[in-house]
């Protein structure tokens, strides 16, 4: 915390000690170390979002913000970009609020093998997760969030069945 001036490594907002968490850039689970070169201070929400992602995946999360990093806990929030580039899709989709996406992704990771296996169940789970976190979603927001999970390869849909890569 001292070396970072009491600021979050990712959004540069003031980081209260009770919200601070150590983020291993290369996770311990992926042979990372506790060295100063590998550890940064960030909020607990961001740490939960990044979890055991590889360094490559973490860099992708940051790059997807297009220079306007939006902290999932709302600190240091800058208006997010309205579209996300994706080579495999001809027209970009609007990005749902990053905090909703982060909350849903963290919830799905936390569920492990207990994740919903059907599309409608997953959509209900997303609605409930966002409702518990920040409010309610419109149908358009739900669909955009669901498609964003698919585009980023976090969920795959075959018919009505859902599989995960989170």
Describe the 3D structure.
There is one protein chain. This protein has 166 residues and is an alpha+beta fold. It folds into two domains: 1-78, DNA Binding (I), subunit A, CATH 1.10.30; 98-164, Arc Repressor Mutant, subunit A (Orthogonal Bundle). It is 35% helix and 11% strand. It has five helices and four strands. The chain has helices spanning 44-50, 55-63, 98-111, 119-133, 139-151, and strands spanning 20-24, 39-43, 155-158, 161-164. Strands 1-2 form a two-stranded antiparallel sheet. Strand 3 (155-158) and strand 4 (161-164) form a beta hairpin. Helix 1 (44-50) crosses helix 3 and helix 3 (98-111) packs across helix 4. The chain starts with 19 loop residues before the first strand and ends with a strand. 25% of the residues are buried.
Strands, helices and their partners?
Layout: E1 20-24, E2 39-43, H1 44-50, H2 55-63, H3 98-111, H4 119-133, H5 139-151, E3 155-158, E4 161-164
Antiparallel strand pairs: 1-2, 3-4
What distinguishing features does this structure have?
166 residues, alpha+beta, DNA Binding (I), subunit A, two-stranded antiparallel ribbon, two-stranded antiparallel sheet, 4 strands, 35% helix
> What is the percent of helical residues?
25-40%
What radius of gyration results from the CA coordinates?
16 Å
User: Architecture of the largest domain, CATH level 2?
Assistant: Orthogonal Bundle
CATH topology of the largest domain: DNA Binding (I), subunit A
- Quote the distance from N terminus to C terminus: 29 Å
- What's the total number of strands? 4
- Number of helical runs? 5
Provide mean pLDDT, rounded: 79
The proportion of strand residues reads 5-15%
Class per helix and strand makeup: alpha+beta
CATH class (first level) name of the largest domain:
Mainly Alpha
How do the helices and strands follow one another from N- to C-terminus?
EEHHHHHEE
User: Biggest sheet, in brief?
Assistant: 2 strands, antiparallel
Total separate domains = 2
- Quaternary state, please? single chain
Strand order of the largest sheet: 1-2
> Globular, elongated, flat, extended or rod-shaped: what is the shape?
globular
The parts where pLDDT drops under 50 for at least 5 residues are 77-98
């Amino acid at each position: 915390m001292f070396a970072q001036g009491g600021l979050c490594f990712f959004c540069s907002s003031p980081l209260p000690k009770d919200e601070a968490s150590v983020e291993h850039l290369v996770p311990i689970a992926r042979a990372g170390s506790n060295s100063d070169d590998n550890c940064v201070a960030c909020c607990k929400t961001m740490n939960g979002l990044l979890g055991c992602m590889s360094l490559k995946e973490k860099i992708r999360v940051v790059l997807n913000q297009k220079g306007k990093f939006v902290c999932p806990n709302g600190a240091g929030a800058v208006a997010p970009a309205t579209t996300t580039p994706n080579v495999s899709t001809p027209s970009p989709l609007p990005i749902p609020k990053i905090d909703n996406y982060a909350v849903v992704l963290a919830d799905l990771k936390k569920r492990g093998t207990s994740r919903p296996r059907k599309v409608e169940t997953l959509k209900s789970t997303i609605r409930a997760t966002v409702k518990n976190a920040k409010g309610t979603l419109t149908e358009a927001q739900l669909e955009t969030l669901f498609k964003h999970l698919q585009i980023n390869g976090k969920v795959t849909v075959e018919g009505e069945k859902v599989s995960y890569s989170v």
